[in-house]
């Protein structure tokens, strides 16, 4: 079956689908990954470009400069406003990718799903969500995109619906224009979204060991396990990294992924001070912030991109922004974490890490200081309970196969016409 995976965002929003695509190819499917052009060199699968580059948007988001919170209703509202140009340009790109690949099924990440649903409906092919975050409203926890803090079951569900409704205007015009271009009738966006969300399954790429499946989710919303990024064929570790790792005890990793673009110099001050005060060695990854150890800093190595599945198991702890992908990589490695969340779903994952017992309390980027990071590093590397819990979670993840359910779903489409689910998530 010809399968198209479509995603949008940062590296953490792309990498898991490279591994999922590899698994689907091994199961006999023809798989293409569609995402933004800057990621072409990081994708070994057949590639289709869609318009957009998140690096032009993220610097405008609240919280990136560390001066205030990147979560909450105001931060989400700003994120919605600045994401409008990105969303507006992607619909035609998705349609073109479906047409060029002759896709017989399409898998859609969270951000592209409302647009991809329309394209799949117009072409008459099945679709499924492949989401990295549990964004469907639930009473079990608060809305993930505004931090996930619980306000009680009834309030959680209400706030989840309000948050979803607040983000929906981002798609109003693009969806209506796309449907018109595809020859589909005009529909109210809220009703359309609900209907399409439940017509086929949405698979969530995280483990129930990390986030139990919410008790009030409809059957259409499944939690299947993580999709691990594919490593570049023939990749070998840089010699300087191997030499550094062999020269002393396991270091800590410090990196903020796609967060705080252009603020690496500012971040370096508390990071390097904390590393010295905690008495640990460190691998400092540049990411989009450009974080590095300039000058003479014994016991600190600055690096560029490295596969987390190779690097993290060699660390004593990992300090990161708690993005979904990096959180997963740290849990898979079985090492303690120190979460420094910035925006969107990151505070949710940071709280999960602390709840699981694999990390001390999170430090929001707006509250990051050398003293706070020193205390967290000391706790993460010296308290055996964090490492024991991390190893326990990693052992659980090692026995799971997040791609298996999607492979079986695709197989069911090939063997017989699949009956779509109705609006309440029941099979017709």
Fold blueprint:
Blueprint (H helix, E strand, L loop, with lengths): L1 E5 L4 H16 L3 E7 L10 E4 L22 H29 L3 E4 L4 H11 L3 E5 L21 H15 L1 H14 L6 H11 L2 E3 L16 E3 L15 H8 L5 E3 L9 H15 L3 E4 L14 E4 L4 H4 L5 E4 L3 H10 L3 E3 L6 H11 L13 H13 L1 H15 L5 H12 L13
Parallel strand pairs: 1-2, 1-4, 2-3, 4-5, 5-6, 6-7, 8-9, 8-11, 9-10, 11-12
Helix pairs in contact: 2-3, 2-5, 3-5, 8-12
Describe the structure.
β1, α1 (11-26) and β2 (30-36) form a beta-alpha-beta unit. This protein folds into 2 domains: 2-227 and 402-415, Glycogen Phosphorylase B (Rossmann fold); 239-398, Rossmann fold. It has a 7-stranded parallel beta sheet, with helices on both faces. Helix content is 43%, strand content 11%. By secondary structure, it is an alpha/beta fold. It is globular. The protein contains 14 helices and 12 strands.
Provide a short characterization of the protein structure.
This protein is an alpha/beta fold and 428 residues long. It has helices spanning 11-26, 73-101, 113-123, 153-167, 169-182, 189-199, 239-246, 264-278, 308-311, 324-333, 346-356, 370-382, 384-398, 404-415, and strands at 2-6, 30-36, 47-50, 105-108, 127-131, 202-204, 221-223, 252-254, 282-285, 300-303, 317-320, 337-339. The model is unreliable at 418-428 (pLDDT under 50).
